[in-house]
Write a structure and sequence with these properties.
By secondary structure, the protein is α+β, with helices and mostly antiparallel strands. It contains three helices and four strands.
Length: 162
């Protein structure tokens, strides 16, 4: 039989390690506060970006709507539906917050009925006026005739066909 050697107390403690303290679990208060500060600063930055995006979207809608209104008003002047003597006004229905002004500059060069018509549409936006200005050279329909005054030619009067 194999005999075992008795161990003494001195040899048993010399080979065994002393228990170590375990690694800490969780976060310290400083780490939590630092993470919270970073999170709040990022929320403020994101809120500013959302606000900026909303403003840009609204300005884009106003740009498109104002351009369409200005083009429609220029078409009214060109067709003779609105006389050149009318210099300002407002729009109806959904566009009642928009107003328009017209300036007419008779061109000295070229035909005598040639006008430089400038239409400016505007509306209030956050305490300031949002304006869009369009200009167009056009002939005065009162001197050249409006489209509504045109008559169709008589097809029987012409002997030839194309």
């Amino acid at each position: 039989m194999i005999a075992s050697t008795p161990t003494t107390c001195a040899t048993a403690t010399r080979g065994a390690r002393a228990p170590r303290p375990r690694g800490r679990r969780g976060l310290s208060l400083i780490e939590v506060l630092l993470a919270l500060a970073i999170f709040l600063m990022s929320l403020v930055a994101i809120a500013q970006l959302v606000d900026l995006g909303t403003d840009m979207e609204q300005e884009g809608r106003f740009q498109a709507r104002g351009t369409r209104l200005a083009l429609a008003k220029l078409a009214e002047f060109e067709s003779g539906a609105t006389p050149f003597t009318t210099t300002d006004g407002t729009f109806d229905n959904d566009d009642s917050s928009w107003s328009w002004t017209m300036t007419d500059d008779v061109q000295m060069q070229g035909p005598p009925a040639l006008h430089l018509v400038t239409v400016t549409v505007s509306r209030p936006l956050k305490g300031r006026d949002y304006k869009i200005t369009l200009s167009q050279l056009m002939l005065d329909p009162t001197q050249t005739g409006a489209a509504g005054e045109a008559t169709r030619p008589d097809p029987s009067a012409s002997g030839g066909t194309l």
